[in-house]
Amino acid sequence: MKKLDLYIIKKFLGTYVFMILAVMSIAIVIDVSEKLRDFTDESNDIGFLDVMLGYYPYFFLHYVNLFSSLIIFLAVLFFTSFMAQRSEVIAILSNGVSFARFTRPYMIVSTFLLLVALLMNHFVVPHSNKKRLDFESKYITLVEGKFKKVTIEIDSNTIVRFNRINTRHNRVDRLWVETWKTNKKGIYELTTDMQVNLANGDSVKHNWELNNVFIRQISDSGETILRYDKIDTLLNFSTKDLAQRSNIMEAMSTQELIKFRNREREKGSTMLTNIEIVLYERTAYPFATYILTLIGVAVSSRKSREGVGKNLIVGLIISVIYIFFMKMTTVASTNVGLAPKIAVWVPNAIFAIVAAYLYFKRIRE
């Protein structure tokens, strides 16, 4: 490996690490300010080291992994633009180094970061998310309106849906509880469908007060419909459980997520699309590293009269468009019926074409 490769690799990794530390420092400060009331609540009995060692390392891993591709893109734009403005890129290319050869160290670093991201997505981050969600469920108040139209599996026979949850007041608006069983053929069958307009739950003993209740009981002999203005009953979950379990897919390893998907497919669950989106994103998002690195090199390696700012603005516009495409295809999958695998990979395919065009155009210059 020549000095050129080492020089660019050092700049790439150095800028990447610096930007991660800068972004995450700001994110942690903002998060601490938002959760300070929970951390200082005497009823939580939590200390400074508990927060710093028991929550924020997992918070850090989650969000670094989530935004890694975009931070890589911005790092490439940033240090390459400065190289171009100092005429370093011109000097390198003028000495007989082709643009393809110039981009080789970029791709070496991108490959390394891609492999790290795949490892993190499939193995490390799910375990980290479990720790993070456990901490949030135990110590952090989840405000009203944070979760809407959530479907979760409490156990192999119980599915719960709800529109809105307020863990501070242990209240759930529009609660559905479905109970399933496996028949002799191994097929899941719905046995009870309970719909509740307003539910107030005890987060410790799981005692629930259900208001305006509609229950449909299904058996071999037919259906029975029951209506109640108010019921006091015991359910095998609490509001804290619902708040935590609404993000449970983030805390599943890939193998666990595949098994979960297969069970939900057998039930005909409405969660199936969301599960598959999460599953495919774990592989698709890291591959954006290659695409965004090529775009970043092609855009920022030109010396501009407007300085570094122009390249950064162009890069930010591209990243916003990329995020927009990801959100648009995800919405199309959940609401229109677009296949999850296509929804997840289409943004990469489109931007791969853009990256190839910009890259080969830069080579021909």
Give a count of the beta strands, DSSP E runs of length 2 or more.
Answer: 6
Tally the structural domains: 2
What's the shape?
elongated
Which structural class should the secondary elements be placed in? Answer: alpha+beta
Q: How would you describe this structure to a colleague?
A:
The chain has 365 residues and is of the alpha+beta class. It folds into two domains: 3-140 and 280-364, no CATH class; 150-245, no CATH class. The chain contains eleven helices and six strands. It has a six-stranded antiparallel sheet. Strand 4 (188-201) and strand 5 form a beta hairpin. Helix 1 runs antiparallel to helix 3, helix 1 runs parallel beside helix 6 and helix 9 (272-300) runs antiparallel to helix 10 (308-336). It is elongated. The two termini are 26 Å apart. Residues 142-148 have low confidence and may be disordered.
Give the structure's gist in a few sentences:
By secondary structure, this protein is an alpha+beta fold. It is built from 11 helices and 6 strands.
Layout of helices and strands, plus pairs?
Elements: H1 3-39, H2 48-54, H3 56-85, H4 88-94, H5 99-102, H6 104-139, E1 150-155, E2 158-166, E3 171-182, E4 188-201, E5 207-219, E6 222-234, H7 239-245, H8 254-267, H9 272-300, H10 308-336, H11 340-364
Antiparallel strand pairs: 1-2, 2-3, 3-4, 4-5, 5-6
Helix pairs in contact: 1-3, 1-6, 3-6, 3-9, 3-10, 6-7, 6-9, 8-9, 9-10, 9-11, 10-11
